[in-house]
Amino acid sequence: MRKAFRALIAPTITAIAAVAMVAGISMVAGTGARAADEPELIFKRSTVWKFLTPDHKLATYAVDDPLVEGVACHFTVPEKGGISGWLGVAEEVSDISLACRQVGPISFKGKFEQGEEMFRQRRSLFFKKMRIVRGCDARRNVLVYVVYSDKLVEGSPKNSTSTVPIMPWGDQMPAKCGDYLDD
């Protein structure tokens, strides 16, 4: 009877140990230089209740543009609960909303390319990433931000766009984003 029980439970224990090991390696590998780039959690709201495991949630985060002083972006992403979410192995869906605003006088810390990545976050254990990219509509002096998710094999066409017209702040004249485009 003990041999039968061990034969039944051994593959389950081995699978759980493998998942825990991969999750642990991913967490260790993900720490370090990117720690300063972590978004700030504003709040979470449950959308689906799960018994004995974490609920599915919507999470809203804030991130400052590292190259453009005076611009902040807020994005909301779904976070899976359940056992796979609890273990950190769930592949998150690509539904992401984005809003970026001028929150102070805008100044540029350097030049940038159209479509340059401003922020990146993993959305699955291995292959899926959420990206926020930045561009400049020089004619209108407007910064344009787009959020989307990509995957090693196949990305998602789901995206969200937000624009930030560069306006005067107090008595300070606005910068021209076209002056900071890398040709």
Q: What percentage of the residues does DSSP assign to strands (E)?
A: 35-45%
Order of helices and strands: HEEEHEEEEE
Mean pLDDT: 77
Radius of gyration: 21 Å
Question: How are the strands of the biggest sheet laid out side by side?
Answer: 1-2-3-4
**Poorly predicted spans:** 8-36
CA-CA gap between termini? 73 Å
Helix and strand content put the structural class at alpha+beta
Main beta sheet: 4 strands, antiparallel
Number of domains: 2
User: Based on CA inertia axes, which overall geometry fits?
Assistant: elongated
* Secondary structure: number of strands: 8
Outline the structure in words.
It comes from Breoghania corrubedonensis. InterPro entries: Uncharacterised_CreA (IPR010292). This is CreA protein. Pfam families: CreA (PF05981). Helices cover 19% and strands 42% of the residues. With 183 residues, it is an alpha+beta fold. The longest helix has 29 residues, at 2-30. The chain has helices at residues 2-30, 82-87; strands at residues 40-48, 56-64, 68-79, 97-108, 116-122, 128-137, 142-151, 159-165. The chain has 2 domains: 1-31; 35-180, no CATH class. It is elongated. The strands form 2 sheets. A 4-stranded antiparallel β-sheet has the order 1-2-3-4, with no helix packed on it. The chain has 2 helices and 8 strands.
